[in-house]
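Appendix B. One record, verbatim.
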Amino acid sequence: MSPRRVTLADVAKAAGVSRPTASLVLSGRGRELRISQDVEQRVLKAADELQYRPNIVSVGLRTGTSRTIGFVSDTVATSRLAGDMIKGALEAARDRGFMLFIGETEGDAELERLLLQAMHDRQVDGLILASMFTRTIKVPKGITASPVVLLNAVPKGPAVLPAVLPHEVEAGRLAARVLLDAGHRDGIYLIGVGPGLRNVPSESVAALERLVGIREALGEAGVKVAGARTCFDWQPEYGLAATRDLLETVRPRALICFNDRIAMGAYQALDDFGLKVPADVSVVSFDDHPIASWMRPGLTTVALPHYELGRKAVDVLFTEMDRAPAERAAGEVHRVPMPVRARDSVAPPSGAHSPG
């Protein structure tokens, strides 16, 4: 049987004061109401000796705040890749004395509805609705009963909620600039999507924005994308198949892969054709998945800032919580920079790139 919880009445009795007096001291209002320093010290000493902790539920009923935040995701909570997103949100909430309630839907709309309802039933002060991959989502009905921030997601239809997203367009620019700075001007191929904006899945925000950034940076330098191969899924086996298909007809000087798993397959295809990275073909990618540093040579990639995304979502949510409902920033988008992780997969172009 668990020990009985120490109550405010216990503290008041031990300090020899009334319950209202003990309450005022412990809420920090003792001096304001001219409670003597002696009484204040007796109450604080009694609370310390008894290891008193305030009843959060009662405090919430009095103050109108539960000091909790709901974090509902599709698969972020159990994903090793995005675990830092949870860590960033947890630490930002903890810094403010708040607790994070975490729920995962696994993409099930009914489970999402029940989780959001459970969060509201527990009177969370705000909600973060997160996605593992940057994508468009249907905003659930009734979610705006409390302040809400979308994390790694944008709403379908009119933007009614603020969103925190990685700066994917700038990431595309950075990936292209890595190749341009190394001297590449032709023979640059894309593996994943492209070459045109029409060759992108409709709901893949990251793919579209990365492609926009790549084409902008290359266009500003007077360079055109030489071609592309699409991947049904952004996994190594599809990167392998797409790159093999490309190598049957051309010898690229550089590849921009749309994530590190695709790049892993591309590495294998290049090796199968007797081509070395980066001596024969430079490769740059996105995400900074753990495999990027394990691959040989190490893969130069533009990193998804998972930890910073989680912290930023909590920062934006607190801003929303401080605003009146009519003043909340509907549709405001906050972009988090994606840094380049330079490794050994890019070198100046050399040799011919005619079919072998």
